[in-house]
Fold each of these.
Amino acid sequence: MSDHHASKSVEQIEAEIAAARDRLAGTVDELHTRTAPQEIARRQVASAREKFTEATRTSTGELRTERVAALAAAAVALIGLGAARRRRG
């Protein structure tokens, strides 16, 4: 054992252990929060919104009408396919 470790008092060691325990508890709490289903869903919604904004807006914030029109056409096509499948099924 080095002189540094030998010179620590029991109180100092206990304080270090308590501090390490507090750090570990904080890490566990943070991991629990990050992996909570509602937090995961919140992050996914935020990511989807950001991607949608990037796809439909220019870097200056102007609407990209050609992309919005393409997205609307795709949505109409998907709705039409869904309706056709239900009629047949």
Note: Helices lie at 3-6, 10-35, 37-56, 65-88.
Amino acid sequence: MRFSLPLPRRSRHPLVRALSLLVGLAVVGVLMVFGLVVASVLLVGGAVVFALRQWSRKRGAMSPAGRRAHVPEVIDGEFVVLHQTRHAAR
């Protein structure tokens, strides 16, 4: 089974063709401007969040509790090596 869309009929009137071209260009322009606005909002928002995180990190490092050396916590564990003595059932 073939699925095919009918071919759109192009107008022969030159004014209608010119207007459709201008409308198409306007739609593409609006979409591009909208995309640039969204991208700039995301970029500025990311920069603000990054700046706030850096600012809060620097303020936390100035406190007396932040000047002490951080001692990492160590988790002890025991490890057992298992040797496979027979083949797994296939």
Note: The mean pLDDT is 84.
Amino acid sequence: MNREAINYVKDAEARASQLRKDADNEIKQIEKETAQEVESIRTALEAELSEYKSEQEQIYSSKLEKDKAEMDESASREAERFEQAYQENKNALANRIAEEVVRRYGNR
């Protein structure tokens, strides 16, 4: 019976060793699959992020162009308004300057 017990223990140790190897192999396989899945998700996320970034750049670029056009138009209107005011008041200003010069220096 001693020999049977020894053989049983050896068989049990061999099975335990094999179970450890199988478990280690299964863990490695799971880790490998997990790493591949994580990399796949990361790649997809980076692609989506890049696409989102591109879309946002287009949106803000078009908004910026629109704002620039509005500002240019507004500046043009203001320039026209100032030019018109200048032309309307140019003669009046020249007359006023002449009156002031005559008033100050004309009586001498």
Note: The chain has a mean pLDDT of 91.
